[in-house]
Structures are given as structure tokens and as C-alpha cells.
Amino acid sequence: MTEEEIKARLRLYAVEQFGESRAEELAADIDKTASDLFALQQHTIQIEDEP
Amino acid sequence: MNLENLTLSEVAGLIRDRSVSPVEYVQALLNRIERIDAHVKAWVTVDSEGALKEARALESEALRGNFRGPLHGIPIGVKDIIYTRGMRTTLGSPLFKHFIPNSDAITVANLRRQGAIILGKTVTTEFATFDPGPTHNPWNLRHTPGGSSSGSAAAVAARMAPGTLGSQTVGSIGRPAAYCGITGLMPTQARVSRKGVFPVGWSLDHVGCFGRSTADLKLLFEGLSLERADAPAINRRLKLGVVQQFFYENATPEARSMHEAVVSKIQSAGIEIEEIRLPEIFEIQSPILMTIMRAEMASAHNEIHRNNSESYKVKLRGLVETGMLLDAGSYLNARRLRRIYQTEMSQLFDHCDLLISLGAKDTAPEGLGYTGDPAFSGPWTLADFPTVTLPHSLAANGMPVAIQLSAPPMQESLLFHGAGIVEEILGFVHTPPVLV
Q1: Is the pTM of this model over 0.95?
Q2: Which chain A residues are Cβ-neighbours of B289 within 8 angstroms?
Q3: How does pLDDT run along chain B (436 residues), one tens digit per residue?
Q4: B337 chain-A contacts, CB cut-off 8 A
Q5: B182-211 in b/e burial notation, b at 16+ Cβ within 10 A?
Q6: Which of B9, B93, B148, B193 is an active site residue?
Q7: Nearest-CA distance from A45 to chain B in Å?
Q8: Per-residue DSSP letters for B195-220?
Q9: Angstroms from B317 CA to nearest CA on chain A
Q10: What is the DSSP string of B4-48?
Q11: Between the CA of residue B431 and those of B2, B12, B264, B436, what are the distances in Å?
């Protein structure tokens, strides 16, 4: 997934769990979380590509 | 003799040879707390009556030649995230302002068994995370002491207690120790029990301590863990690995230049120094740590958050709620990457005995709305490398600056041995100017 796709997925979960208003308040935290998950994903792909 | 200026290890020896009365010592500290804590705000609860009562009992035993252990008669402050039997434990949260545990944390029980006196509970940030408490830095009251072990660090720096307990999930011992010009120990996680400590992240939490010397930390560690950390038999020069990558890039120019000077000083004193290259996986150490922490926080707060989310402060609530958005696969992937990180980082010790790195990016920030950046401690927490923070100088703004020394997991003996040698070379003798 791209970082934007991860972000979108997390925002969707946040709306489901906490409602629109709270999901909006969490935007910056969600962005940071998505950035971290993307970094881990990229490194995992790298590891799995190695022999 | 100015009792409150004695270090923990000094006063332990003086109590042992009956030169200092535990009752007089506790009273001197209580007097100091009464004089200055209105300014520093390090304490949540001070148990004057209980501490004096215990001191009288311990003094009586000492006079008969009976000593419970090396910490006999020593008053200790306990971070308010750690449970103390019969003594209020607020976890830094209004939700727990009346909570009184009915049992001690294992670490507290161990200290009492050694003859230590629980002086009181020190300020923690809310649930030991990032939203600040009310504590001020004794070096300059306009500055933060760091967090989350804010009160524990400030109490030792301000000579209100010779030693205190803290905890670290990212940088909550290292950062406050660096900011407050005192020594701090984050031990290997498995060496010191976390039972009776409200969790931030179970796999990341470490219980540690603060003092004013390496000898203080060693005594406290042995009291907390009930294990000895005697010097290893080493018949060769100590070798330190200097970690420049990441740390030098992210430190302020002044912090970097002071660190370079200190490394030179250590090298001139005869310690072998080698620059260490970090493995590639280091690039994602912060995302690994934060992903694990968010998920584990969400789990720990699941019940409390359900009915009390509105009362959570901003940063805490953000971490818990983003943790609740994570799926199991993401968490497990982070744990898997952590194992790889730990394996690759351990290989750094093929080239040196201990790692040396900057204690913090800069001195303690001005203002009390932010406890500072834990980025320089996080790598060692994630690696589970026992780490000592040692102050070495004062910056241009008069605030203390520190180094970190890190050892392989379970090698606290080597860590204390090396830290003792380096500490003597550094020769830090400054005291806070504000509240002497």
C-alpha cells in the first residue's frame, strides 16, 4: 500500500470507532502513524526480497 | 555536615558506620522538601510520618549492629506510576487521584527489604507518557526537567532525595537525567521487575533509577534487582564505540561540539575510541518503537479509555486512539522487525565494550508545556541495551549536558565498571545554582 492508502484506511477506521469529529481531531496523529507503518512496510518488503 | 548534599552511596556508608543518623537524615530531607518543593513541584505525596517512623526503627536496628541491607536507612522517592502499599499512587491522572494500592510493586518491596525508606511519590506525566506534569527544572525553574520521570529527576537534582525510581519506555529516564544534570540508569528489561508498575508498553517498559553518581546507580540497581553487579575481570583497556550517525545529525551545533570535546577528553585519558557504523535497520528504529508502543498502550488503556477518554490529555489520547486503529498484523510485523533490530544492533559490540552517544539533542527546553525529545534514548530502549546517563558539562545557558553509555543486554556489571571510569574522567561537580 502507498502511504496515502494507509492514511485513508486509518482515517476510515477512526471514523468507524470514534466518529467524524474525533477522526478529524486525530488527523495529525493518524498521519504520523501512517508514516511509521509505511516505513515498516518498506523495510519488510526489502527484507523479504533478500535471499 | 550538610546532609542533603551527600550522595546516596556516601550516606549509605555513613549510616553503616553510624556517623549519620537515619532519623536526622530523613528530617533534613523533609526540611529541604518543605523549603523548596513549592518551587520545583517534584512530589505528589510526601510521607513524612511514615518515613520518620521507619527511620526510627532502622536507626534502632543500626545501633544494635543490625543492617537489613546496603540501603539501610536510605530514603528513596518512587515515581508515581509504581505502586506503593498504603500510599496514594495517582499514575499522573485525575482518574486515580484517590487510588491507594494494597501491595507494593516488586521493586519497592525489594528496596524495603534492603532497609530503604519510601520517602514519597514523585511526579509522573499522565500515565508516564508525554503530556507534562507541573515539575520545574532545579537548574532553571523556567525549564522542563524532562519526562516522564519528571519528579524523580528533579528531586535528586534539587537534593530532596539521594535516589529515586523512574521508568523508561522511550526516553523517560535518560532525558530527565540529562536535563537535570544527574545520573540515570535504564537497566536491561529482564533484570528489574515491572510487576506493580502501570504499563505504558509491556515489551518496552524498563524500571530504573536516578542518583548523583555511578556508585549510586549500582547500589540502587542491586537493591531493585536483588542481583550483584560486581566489576567484571577485565585485564585490558576499555574500548568505547562512538555513535555519530543520527545523533550528530540531529543534535544542536553546541551539543555536538560539546560531545566531540568530551570524547576527545575521554580518549586523551587513555580510553580507546572507535567510530561505530549503525546497521541499515536503524533508519526505522523510531517507527518500530512507536508502532509497538501505540498498540500496547491501546491494549493497556482499553478498559479505562472506554468511559474516560474525555479526561485524557491530548498527547496520551492521541497515542491510545491511534493504537486502537492498528491491526494485529502491523503490531506483529513491528515486533518481528524489533527482533531483527536487536540482533543487528548487538553486533556493534563486536567492535567495542560500550557505546557512547549524546544524552539529548539539546539542553532542557524552556517552558513547561513540552518535556523534550526522547529521540536519543529510544534506540537503546528498543535494543534493550542497559544505559547509564552521565552529566559532563554546563552549556552556555548554564543547563547541564550529558552522555549515554550503553552495554549489551544483561551486562550491567560491565556498564557500571565503564561508567565509573568515564565518570572520573568527566569530573562533573556542578550543583544547581537556583536552590542550593
Answers
A1: yes
A2: none
A3: 789 999 999 999 999 999 999 999 999 999 999 999 999 999 999 999 999 999 999 999 999 999 999 999 999 999 999 999 999 999 999 999 999 999 999 999 999 999 999 999 999 999 999 999 999 999 999 999 999 999 999 999 999 999 999 999 999 999 999 999 999 999 999 999 999 999 999 999 999 999 999 999 999 999 999 999 998 888 788 999 999 999 999 999 999 999 999 999 999 999 999 999 999 999 999 999 999 999 999 999 999 999 999 999 999 999 999 999 999 999 999 999 999 999 999 999 999 999 999 999 999 999 999 999 999 999 999 999 999 999 999 999 999 999 999 999 999 999 999 999 999 999 999 999 866 5
A4: 40, 43-44
A5: bbbbbbbbebbbbebbbbbbebbbbbbbbb
A6: B148
A7: 11
A8: TTB--S-TTT-EEEEEESSHHHHHHH
A9: 9
A10: GGS-HHHHHHHHHTTSS-HHHHHHHHHHHHHHHHHHH--EEEE-H
A11: 14, 21, 24, 7
Q: Give the Cα separation of B331 and B229 in Å (integer).
A: 35
Instruction: Answer yes or no: B79 catalytic.
Output: yes
Phi, psi (degrees; rounded to nearest 5) at B375: -55, -30
CB contact under 8 A, A10 and B319: no
Indicate the burial class of B169 (C-beta count within 10 angstroms; 0-12, 13-18, 19 or more).
Answer: buried
Residues of chain A positioned with their CB less than 8 A from the CB of B319? 29
